[in-house]
């Protein structure tokens, strides 16, 4: 696999995104990707906090730190190749193998399944996931923004009769990852973007 890793601000480019099913997301190979918004807000419950996003690439992994007043609130890791974008880690979970968010070019209607392990602290559990791409509307400065929404429905074998469920959601629009929701935990959104 030809692997070229890009820092998260240069990961992706949204090309021809329209309200119909013609929305397509390409890797940064076109050279026209726009920077990732470094000023964002994070919502934890009813509390909204302005945050700064710092990014670094090491060992083929793009690491994203979410900071408030110099203190790290959350961190995420992604792997991006010419062929796909994967979720490697959240603040609480590490995925082996990484969870594929999308294969490039990505478009509405694509689905995929994943099975592997989730490590939470010292505990590793088996898990499965379904990944689906749909279109969704957000707003930027009051103007409608067409996005591709990636939904990851995760089922973790917790030892209970029914697996523990988690949902991760990612919205890509205007060449950027503009919104991210990790279940009932936190929501991170670019400044100026609204539902």
Describe the 3D structure.
This protein is mainly beta and 195 residues long. The protein contains no helices and 16 strands. The chain has strands at residues 12-15, 24-27, 39-44, 47-58, 61-68, 71-80, 84-89, 94-103, 106-107, 111-120, 123-140, 143-156, 164-173, 176-182, 186-190, 193-194. The strands form two sheets. It has a twelve-stranded antiparallel barrel. Strand 12 and strand 13 form a beta hairpin. 33% of the residues are buried.
In brief, what are we looking at here?
With 195 residues, the chain is an all-beta fold. It has strands at 12-15, 24-27, 39-44, 47-58, 61-68, 71-80, 84-89, 94-103, 106-107, 111-120, 123-140, 143-156, 164-173, 176-182, 186-190, 193-194.
Any key phrases for this structure?
single chain; 195 residues; mainly beta; 3-stranded antiparallel beta sheet; 0% helix; globular; disordered N terminus
């Amino acid at each position: 696999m030809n692997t070229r890793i890009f820092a998260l601000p240069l990961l992706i480019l949204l090309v021809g995104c329209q309200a119909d099913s013609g929305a397509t997301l390409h890797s940064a190979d076109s050279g026209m990707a726009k920077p990732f918004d470094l000023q964002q807000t994070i919502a934890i419950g009813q509390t909204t906090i302005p945050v700064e996003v710092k990014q670094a690439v090491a060992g083929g992994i793009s690491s994203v730190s979410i900071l408030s007043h110099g203190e790290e609130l959350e961190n995420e890791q992604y792997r991006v190749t010419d062929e796909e974008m994967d979720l490697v880690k959240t603040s609480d979970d590490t995925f082996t193998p990484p969870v594929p968010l999308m294969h490039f070019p990505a478009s509405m209607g694509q689905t995929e399944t994943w099975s592997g392990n989730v490590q939470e602290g010292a505990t590793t559990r088996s898990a499965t996931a379904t990944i689906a791409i749909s279109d969704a509307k957000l707003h930027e400065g009051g103007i409608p923004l067409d996005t591709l929404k990636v939904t990851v429905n995760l089922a973790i074998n917790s030892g209970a009769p029914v697996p523990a469920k988690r949902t991760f959601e990612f919205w890509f629009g205007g060449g950027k990852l503009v919104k991210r929701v990790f279940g009932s935990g936190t929501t991170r959104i670019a400044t100026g973007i609204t539902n």
